[in-house]
Amino acid sequence: MTSKSFSSLSIVNQNAKSILNKATGFIKNYDFTLNAYRGCQYGCNYCYASAFSPNQQMRENWGSWVMIKENAAELLNKELGKIVEKQSAPPSIYMSSVTDPYQPIETKTFLTRRILEVLIAYQPILVLQTRSPMIVRDADLLQQFKTLRINMSIPTFSEKVRKDFEPRSPSILSRLQAISKLKFLLPSDQDHEIKFSITVTPLLPSYPEDVTKFIQKLEIFDRIVIQPFHANRKSSLVASTPTSAIQLKEKYHWWYNQEKEKYHWFKQQLEYLTLSGVEIKEGEEGFRYD
Question: Looking at residue 18, which CATH number applies to its domain?
Fold first, then answer.
């Protein structure tokens, strides 16, 4: 295991002992989760995944460190080889559950791309979860999957809110543009079942005027997934909302003082304004492939 630092980012290179883990919680309907990285440079202050950091200090410094599983692609090939020998049906894989496969360090490591190259040979049921337009880079590989869902995370429809809750992440517009490009580049025929979701999870505040304008652009998706914040818990290794996000809620008291009502209002707006053919799912149900 080696460690180095780029500016304020601490990077650790390590060899993982395993790369496929049994899926649990919201994504328990999948066979496995796949995380090529540990930690995430986007460091969104509401991210439940910070609870799974190796220690309290790293939990508090979420976004300032990344662990790279250098042997992920080679390990994946070995593990999938054993799995397909034991079962006839292709495995279902959720990538990723506690990191972003297209966080900025991916431009240097190409680790996610190497993993996709391995996955193509096995053709699993694959879900890719990201908030990064970088996913378009791998369109040539994504074209080769037969069963694929791409989940683009956009938890708010207001750019002002994004800058408060996830200031390091790409703009809302760039994420929408990425999905539009992929819709054009990826095949849509009887041999390819490629789907696109927008995951509004957790639902962050959105100004009413932005909601109306944004919803009109959602025809590029076939599914909208919404859910509220995870509960705040003090214990480690439990999905929860960090204290920093709880404190930021005070700035948006006009939303959070009536959080249940705002959630219901937002869902109503989706149901009223979204074009037919775009399904709206809540919580665990929305994270299924089908």
Answer: 3.80.30.30
